[in-house]
Each structure stands twice: as structure tokens, then as C-alpha cells.
Amino acid sequence: MNETISAVIPAVLNKPETKPAAGARTETKATCCYCGVGCGVIVESDGQQVTGVRGDPDHPANFGRLCTKGSTLHLTASPVLQQQVRALHPEMRFRRDARRERASWESTLDYLARHVDETVRRHGPDSIGFYISGQLLTEDYYVFNKLAKGLIGTNNIDTNSRLCMSSAVAGYKQTLGADAPPPCYEDIEQAQLLFIVGSNTAYAHPILYRRIEEARRKNPALKMIVADPRRTDTARDADLFLPILPGTDVALFNGMLHICLWEDLVDAEYIDSHTEGFAELKSIVRDYTPKFVAETCGIREEDLVTAARWFGQSKAALSLYCQGLNQSASGTAKNAALINLHLATHQIGKPGAGPFSLTGQPNAMGGREVGGMANLLSAHRDLANPEHRAEVARLWGIDEVPAKPGKTAVEMFEAVRTGEIKIIWIACTNPAQSMPEQALIREALRHAELVIVQEAYKTTATADYADVLLPATTWSEKEGTVTNSERRITRFKPVLPKPGEARHDWEMVIDFARRLEVRMGRGRDGTRSLFPYEGVEQIWNEHRESTRGRDLDITGLTYQILEQQGPQQWPFPEGATEGSKRLYEDGVFPTASGRARFVPTVYQPVVEKADARFPFGLTTGRLRDQWHGMSRTGTVAQLFSHASEPAVLMSRQDMERRMMADGDLVHVTSRRGSQILPALASEDIRAGQAFIGMHWGEEYVSGRGNDGNGSHGVNALTVAAYCPSSKQPELKHAAVKILKAELPWRFLVFGWIDASQALTLQASLRPLMRSFAYASCTLFGRDKVGVLFRAADDYPAAAELVGDIEARFGIAGAEVLRYDDARRGTSRRVRLQDGRLAAVSLAGDTSAEHWLKEYLESEQPVAALGRLLLMPSAKAPQGFKARGRIVCNCFNVAESEIDEALAGQDGINEGTPEVVLASLQGKLKCGTNCGSCVPELKKIILVKSPAGKVAA
Fold first, then answer.
1. Domain check: are 850 and 914 in the same one?
2. pLDDT tens-digit series, residues 435-473
3. Are 173 and 599 in contact (CB under 8 A)?
């Protein structure tokens, strides 16, 4: 059978790629692989490794700008890192209690084809599930969708885009008729009012925020309203900040529309000519009086009225929104309520106006275009529509597309847990970190008959559950297209050859599918393969044909046009010379009547409201320099300098009331799980609220857990309840209690690690983290790589465990300086190298950390310290000054250096806050490269500069 199967696999899937000559310097245009802004990058390579990246000045998404994450992309492609974290060859295990073993592609794919075929024969096609990713390319997405719905015959294919964009999709479709953001990035420059809600744009989409800053500089009349439960860096820049309570967005938008109706700020002519359903909505919003809405949202009534007037009176109002609206059990209603406001005031279909959903992932838009979700089909077709299913069946050359709805993300893992789905195929995503209610997700992965993980990184939490690991290519190695938030398609080619035995995602799918076709008997009756492609262009051309006559028609586009003319926006139908910047300028919408639809939206509170048992409202969100589960950004030590370790942020008032100090460990507990974290006071959070970065999974923070099975980061706490329309879970909000953790014994190890071993060390420590009540493990450093391991418990850990961890840091042998106090249960170990600190271990009393780590990072000679190096006192050496947290990652500028400059006598503090910022940038260079730290610099000036205090 192996020979028969192999015979139908065209040579193109197995032939080696042409590799650039080693040492030949090349520059290749590509796209950043992080957020949905879709920034163009120029990748510098020597044929074997990426040597640098810079922004593409010709790319219309970013015009040469890159954020801290994008500007360090080359560091994530380092061969030294790749060898430690990349999946480089197929691996299989045949018993759950066995380790995976290296296998050949032939045996692995034959095994999968046989196992999937047998499972479908025994249990039906719906016993298979695919969970894929918005980080796949459009071509990858397309063949996955065809494999599931066209060959196997199941609609059980969903994507991590369900966790971030599905409410935006449902909101657009319910109101405007299609999943198509109407505005474009140029509208930022043409807007008269920016309404940012549910988005910390300064962190989540930094390059768009640079455009916002520039637009406001050029147009001082441009106003900005920000609605957010936290006073984020984005909110601090606002002309009007609405600190709404979590989940009250529908009430806010309905209240603004109520005021616009009362003050005659709606466009009655536009409503009559281009919309339907307004009478029903009008009867609903009449109850959303300013008093009721202000009380519901927790804001001042006068601020609500101001926001409504600014919006209704503006000549061009542009809304920018993201997960604060989407990740909610009422996410679709939140999106629809905001779009209602735009339609009623005619803030749509014209320059500078419109509801603009900011995509979270680099190709979530492309995945939606090809129908790579459980309820969609190619080219924005609906699975529930029989005519749409018939159209796709004809295109694919199959009898029918199954009508039974597929399982969406949360439903899919529940079906795996109960045994309804036997085989789960996971590609380019990490549900053991990113899905809510982690206890259920991990139970599902343990119970599945077969877990297939198609992944570039072998170090993700999900990879631990893989029975079969398929090594995939990643950024700088892939070829295809992506679509960004403004409907702009970018084509890019690989910069580097495929590492090891890794394959492109589309290659794996096609190779597997052809083997499965043989087993299923397809081809014996003269039918051709459903997967005749020999390259990505053939896949894209078929996708292009599926869009003919649809709202996203791209029949006028080709790979050649994308390569020669650069990125293009859809729609771009046959005969067009360019794509459409913005949609619905003619007032015609892709609905049956041609009119936009008002949706009757009613405010529903968050699923879990704070109560006496769980008195805090927890929200989650992004950190500035990290992305998603950190499988990529977490390999770059300098990206930890801004937020170095996991923490829960609380209001200072709440911490003082509970007698907590910065750094104290606390139990954060919801109805689903618990995670111990350090607590930090934040001036940006109101009493009764708390915040944790969404990125912290068990790869970086864990512990024994209350049930002994381990705690699994922030998503051990979050809620799996989802929006009935979009099926997007309420990841943003949960009710928790926060109690001080009485863990008197502390343990800390940090040190420089050879770059070729640092990530391997970090991964090896992960199982040991579960031996402690609390443990975290992160990187630090810049030119060198350091690893920091922190743990706490209610009793000292076994000497063997402590010694094992110390030895992994090289803290062993006669050369190590030692101090032990058995009575106090404290110890200190110091490893020196060339007269400087190389590694330090502190057990029991860890209070000397602040200066010992600073000495290590600054690589200062320690000969002058003498006995102080080992004395139990936490007192720092005389004259010691800690640098503290890094604010500007590009130029390694610490907050202490900014404080010194602002306190100096060289005139930096003279003038307005804007002048002070310019002076500070001139002196320290901070904020002059990517600009990601500029909002924080403004905050520091406002708090610590006399000019800022006067302005405030």
C-alpha cells in the first residue's frame, strides 16, 4: 500500500527547494507575522539565516514603520534559537504513556491516512475535527477547508480566529450583509473624530497608533474618545476617556444613540433611503436614558452626553475596536450596536468614517475569505445556505458539501472531551494556552483517541499532548498571501529554505489528502484528485475563482499583479485596475434588499458579575512587547524587559485594604481554577477590577494547582461561555477572588546561559515548576541571554530538587561561592566568571535580588564587594543605583534614566509636555525608533515633570 500511495504523490511535494547560495546577501519583501495591521518588512538574509529586518517604506500598511515585536523578527529566526524550539522532523507515539519517536514522512502520513480512514468508516466523518489558525496563509487555509468539507465530509473545522474575530464577523453580516470592514487605514488621516472602544491600540496595533498620533499632530481639531475599563496608554491620550465598567458597551452605544435621537443628530434621510429596521431599534434605545446608561456604565452623565454630541455632530467619525467588544458572550450585540450608531448618523461609506474592526491575527481575514470556519464556506458563503453549498460543491467537483453545522472552537473541544470527536488535528495554534477554561481543554486533549499537532514550535503547551507532531515552516520560510485588517492582500515569497524536514502547511495537507483519497477509493471511477495543485499559485487561483461575483471578488488580481504593483485591497473584480479603498459609498449593501439592517440590541451584563464570593472583575489583554502565547516573541530575551514576569494588576486602594505590597504573591481564583501570581499596584485600574496579560500560559507560569494537576496560567481562570450568534467565548471577563498567598519560602535562580542552551533550559524547567505551589520562568538580557526561575512554597523544597535546578544553571562544583544558614532556612550560591556574576541562587531570603541581578545584568566587577556578596543582608552596596524597568526597548532606556533626565537642570523640563517629550527624545533617543514607548513616555512626563503636572 505504501508504494501505491506514494505513486500518486507528484514529485513536486518531495523535491528539494532551490536554496540561495550561502553568503549571498539578499533583501526580500515579506509581511510581519504578528497582528492584523499587516506591516510590510524587508528581510535581509545571507541565504542561510535572517540577518536583519526593517520596515518596507513602500508598503501602504506601515510605510516603513515597525513596532518592537516586528523590529526584532530577525532574532526569532536565529539558527541558535531554531535548533532549540523548532519542530524539525515528524514524531509519533503509539502509546499514551510512551515518548514520541522520530519517524519518516512516509510512515507518518500513511499512518494518519489509515487511522483517519478507519475512524471515518467506524464513526462517521464528524468524528474528525480540525482546529486551525489565523496565522496560516490563505492558501494553507483553503486546502484545510477543502480537506475537511470536501474530502472527509465534515464541517468540524474551526480556527483560533473564533477566539478573536467571530463577533466582528457576525456583527458585520447582521447589519451590513457581509464580513467586510468598510473603512481603510487612510480614513485615520481623514477622520474628524476617532472613537476607540475595546482596544488598547497603542499596545495591540502600535503602527496604526503611530498613524493616529501623526494624524492628530497634523490636525489639532481631530478629537479622540476612548472607552475602556482601564486607563490604558491609549486612554491617557484621549480628549475624552470613558472608563466604562466591563461588558457595558451595548448600553453605552444605545445611550449615545438615544442622545443623538433626542438632539436630532441622526441622518433621517440616510436612514430612510439606505437602511431598514430602525423603528424597532428606536423603540429599544428610548429606554437608554443618560441617567440609566451613566449608572450602568459607571461613567459621568455629562461625559456620555459629550461623547454622543461629538459623534453625532462630527463630519467624519471613525470607530476602531477589537477584543473588548469581540471576546464576550454578547460580542455580536456589541458590534451591531456600534454599527447601529454609525448607520443612524451616516458615519459610514464616506472618507474618514465607518466602523473599523481591527483584526487580531495576521491572516484572520484571509481565513474568513476562504471559509475556514465551521459556519462558513469559500468567498463569504454561508454553510446554512443550500445554494451556497451547491455552488462550492460544483467548484470542487463533489456531490455535496455536508449541511450539518460544524463544531466551533469551544464546542469542538467539548466534543473531543466527551468522545464524540475521536481525532483532533491542530495546526499553528496553541489551545492548551489560549482557550478558556483550561481544565476542560486539557481533559479533552488527554481523552482524544489521536491528537495531531502541525506546528513550527515543539515547545508549546499543546505540543506536549501531540501523539503525532508534524513539523511546519513558519515566517521567513513560507510562501503565499495574507489579508490585513483593511482588506489588503500581500504576496510574499520564502527567504530561507525549509529547516530540517519541515514542510509547508499546504504541502502536508495535500500529501495527506491524496493518501486518504486512495484509501477512500476516489480516482478509481475516473474522478480527478481534489488536490491537483503543484504550488501555492494554483491554490490561490482556485480561491480567486470562488470569489467571482461575491462581495470580495478578486478575479482581477493575480500573483503577478501583487508582485509587480504591491499589496492590493479587495474587492478587485475582473477588469478593475485597483481595489476599493472603502465600501458602501453608494449606500448599497450586500443584503437581499440592498439596505443595511438595524439590529435590535439589548444590553446584557457579563456572564459572571462580581459578587460577595468573587468580588473582583478580572479582565485580560495584551502586553506591549509580547504576542499571543509567546511561542515566537518568548524566544527573544529583550522583549521581556518591559513586562519581565507574570503579574496581576490591581488598584492601589484594593491592595492597601488587603495589606498587600508590590510583589506579594496572591491566589487569583475563579469558579474554574486558580493561579498564583505576584500582585502589582496600578493607577490605571479602578477599585474592584483586576487585569492579567493574556499571554501568560504554563510555559511561563504554573505550579501544583489546587487539584494537584497543575495550574495553567491566565486561562485557567477564564469563562468558556460564548456569544450565541458568533460562538466567540467571553475570554475578556471573569469574576475572581484575590487572596494573599501565605508562602513564606522563596527560591530564585538567575544567570547567563549560552544562547544555544537557554531555551532548552527553560523548557526543561517547565515540568519542575509543578513541584512548587508557584513558579515562573522567563528570559532576560539583551546582548546575552539570561534565564530567571522563581518559585515559592509553604515549606522549603527538597534539597535534591533545589540542587537539580541550581546545577542546570551551572551552579555546582568547588568554584561556586556558598552561604548557608540552616536555622533560618536560607542559602545563597554565586557562580563567578572572569570576576563577574554569572549565576545566582537565593533560597529562603530572596530580598537581595534587586541588586544582585542588576550587578549581573550590568556585568560589573564584583571584587570590591568582598563578603557583601554572600552576606545574608539584603542591603545593596553603597552607591548602588538600580536601572529598573526598561521603557524603550529599541534603545534600552530605563525608567530610572528618564527620571534622572526629567530631574536634571539642563532645560528638559521647560515648555509644554510636547516640548518636554521632544527634549527627552533628543537626549536619550527613547521613542525615536519604533515609537511604541511614546504613550508611556507621555504618562511619565505627565506624572513626574512639572510641565506635565501643570498641563494635568
1. no
2. 999 999 999 999 999 999 999 999 999 999 999 999 999
3. no
